[in-house]
Fold these 3 entries.
Entry 1:
Amino acid sequence: MPKALALSLGDPDGIGPEIAVKAWNALREDPHAPRFIAIGARNAVEAACALLKVPAPQILEHWDDIEAVFPERLPLLALPRAEGPKGSAEVTIAAIERAVGLTLDGQASGVVTCPISKARLYEQGFRHPGHTEFIAQLCQKTPYTGTPGPIMMLAAPELKVTLVTIHLSLKDAIAALSPDLITRTIRITHEALKRDFGLANPRIAVAGLNPHAGEGGALGHEDEAIIRPAIEALRAEGLEVFGPLPPDTMFHTEARERYDAAVCMYHDQGLIPLKTLNFHGGVNTTLGLPIVRTSPDHGTAFDIAAQGLARADSLIAALHLAQTMADNRLR
């Protein structure tokens, strides 16, 4: 049997505990579905189980018990939670640390993370830009020496996109673009498609920045001066990468059949088409780490938490993808 996944539950006041229970309830009777242990605040998980009218979680002390427990009760590695915002932040961080540690130690096959509230963590002194950067520090290395951290992929059955820049204003994202940064993103995408997705010869499409990919310089110089040199350098090394492509014509059905993943220059350029194609099934995947890490592609949704309204589709997809990636790494 493959090893189980470690699921950190995110902010205990968000929808993380609820969607974890819903995911377990949807998967528990399928012997081929990924197995996981939830890691987080006991009271939040017990409240979610009561809300959804399923058995209370099984508190585990031994990792080997997961398979025997999973069909009957949600396995939980319970962490203490103090009262108030400070207590919520502490258990959120502790769950991530524990999930990453178990995976680095080889006990878990990968990490899946439920949503966190960065604003709440910042209020309590959290100094990392986000989830991904914190996990990268816990891993203490990336596969490309001298490069600034891992990259983000959003994956759905219809489309996979990676982002050269992520959470920057459009003005700052354009200023940050460079041939080196684009080259690095394409390299990590290429290696991940081989190692994590089992593709022997990945095909990668690269989006242009400007309308019509710059129209030969008439609509902006970045496509020819910054993006094309990165593509040509990698093509010279034998990678199957092409572009820059006009962004408005590269995401329709026939166009997507030509490539396995698209590299996009900024956040919305990649996420708008992906979320239009599959809003509930997208998975946030971190590439360039020594461990597998996926996450549902949504936030904490405090406004609907503890009401039984949250959908677990994206978390279920994240669990399936994490297990597939972990299995591919063993081959």
Entry 2:
Amino acid sequence: MNIKEQSWFSPVLHRIGDVSGLLMATYTSFKLIPENQSSVLLLLMLSALVSGWFFSTVGVYRPWRGNSKINELTLVLTAWLGSWCILAIAYYCIPFISLEVDLLIAYLVAGIIWLTTSRILVRLYLNKVRSQGGNTRKVVVIGEGISAKRLLSKIRGNAWIGYDVAGQFGKHSVDDDYQYLGDESEVCKYLSEHPRVREVWVAMSLAQEERVVKVLQRLDATTCNVRYIPDPIGFRLINHSITPIAGINALNLSMSPMDSSNRVLKAVEDRIIAAIILLMISPLMILLAIGVKLSSPGPVFYRQERVSWNGKTFGMLKFRSMTVDSEASGVQWGGAATMSVTKFGRFIRATSLDELPQFINVLLGDMSIVGPRPERPMFVDQFKHEIPGYMRKHKVKAGITGLAQINGWRGDTDLSKRIECDLDYIDNWSLWLDLKIIFLTIFRGFVHKNAK
């Protein structure tokens, strides 16, 4: 079968995968909770009807090309929970339906497992097919600014998305890997001569309103799908999206990803993981506390004022690694190497063991496990005027570890690189990204040459 440009292939494959998942869920629940065959057959038929309708209604079978796997799975499992609730209500309200509660619960859990499995397998298969040139969608790009360059670079590096860029229109070429097709005035002629191109992406500056309007007016003469990718003109957009306000669509240019639901999810994640880690490392922390106390006179913990979410300050805890008078002459950025550090302190710094008390900060709600590393107020006041986008790192809680740390940008390294990583984290935040960073921290984040 030639699936080079079949638009129906992906949604049909997803439907086949979901049906297979429901069949396996029915079989699994029947094996776990033996029932008569007529009850199981009734469950399967009702589930097929309800799920088929509900999945389509909530948009499960909309195009997922290039979208996040987590977003797709979240919607699928939400739709499955909704379908199951309808089945449960039918069980209680319709007299002639007789199904055991245990069977319904087993069906719910089995459905979660098998639908997740089928979706992942379908996604992996589609990614493979698209990376090999199958199931692609031909597009052309109009524009020559930052957005156009970034867009073409992303497409080149992510063949699994399934978009085949036929070329670029604009004032000049921006990427030698893609054919330059000329000025945008030629786009309609090109589209009429190349009917396989079904999408046009307009990647232009927000300041080029008149030019964008002219391009869109030209494209009115075509039947292609048109997408607009605004050029930020050098600005870094954070968690950008569109929000309707009183019927008017507003473009969110710089937003925190911690809305009400994400904020709760992040807080639950932090508290649970921090509590588990503190229980596991409590014997180690006792030994480290003894080591600090024996290495030099002074307190075990060192409390330092740092800046976190929305610019609020808090007292960040560390095991003391310096002598008590090491900062008597003041604090300077990049002065870690000149501090009076004890021998034991040098060890716990190099291994990042001095950071372990910050899990207490996480339990108190001052920090997150994953997030941008916090800085002292005096340096925040300095850097916010020197480094573009610096204050945007405070759109989330400060963290013990982060994207910058697992990529080696820690200690007295390039601050601009660290901020770039922090903004990437905020712009792409998800629970999965947090777990990935925590996992990589175990292998990359503790012992590092830049830890001082």
Entry 3:
Amino acid sequence: MTQTRGRILGVSALALTFAAGLASPALAQQAPNVVVQEAPPQADRAVVNRIVVRGNERIDQTTVLSYLPIQPGDTIDAVTIDVAVRTLSRTGLFADVQLGLQANGDLIVEIAENPIINQVTFEGNKALAEKKLRDEVTIRPRGIYTRARVQEDVGKIVELYRLSGRISATVTPKLVQLDQNRVDVVFEIDEGPETGISAITFLGNRAFSDSDLAGVMVTKTSKWWRLFSSNDNYDPNRLDYDREQLRKFYTNRGYYDFRILSSVAELKPDNSAFGVTVTVDEGDRYNFGEIKVVTENDRLNGDFLQLLLPIRKG
């Protein structure tokens, strides 16, 4: 607030303060670092005469006022202005919000609108197609830019790479400022190397060998001859599928109580590969006892039907 606007009691999203001794919390627009100070005494309250909105370009004044929890005639203090600034900031429409009460009772709402996204581009992606990345992110051209949404999209891209076996991938968002309060959003991607599987170890298995169980799993250890396969890359979703395959393998062979106690993937110190350790509890093996077919239909012979069954005693 400049001195030319008169004596102002002001609060902003970057520095929420009352002039003339009033104090209130501080709030950043996207990542608020709240500093709570003592509430002002009852004497430091004032009545709002009218509300003046400044700085809006695309957003209509009526829209701004609809979000503002203050109306002419209200009695306000530092806490009231603090709540109002937080409310406007959380709409995601504004890069900065400042509120100040002038000596004549005018409440000045000074806003800086978030920019409009001109285009979204990706740089450095080779392992994943741009269409797959574009389908993953939520920001779109002609949408409103907010740092929170961009950071959320960064996390989604990193997770996409992690699931494709590139655990060390990093994504850096950058803005290119344009005229008319527009920006280009660029996701700079360092895909990093593929993270392979150095070894698959089984603990607790007695009925079947490690090689028997490894043969059931889709995930394989990394070998030089698997150049055209991605099954030797670390993929937590694929490991979930492998656990289900192991369960079916055992239950189909009579181990009804089979359980996987743990499945741990540990990254090597050089981040080059994972070692997977699967601990199992095989349980007892169940065999069929006496088998008898009983029918209430006189035309059907139970002994003959029993011969058709694919299971036998033992």
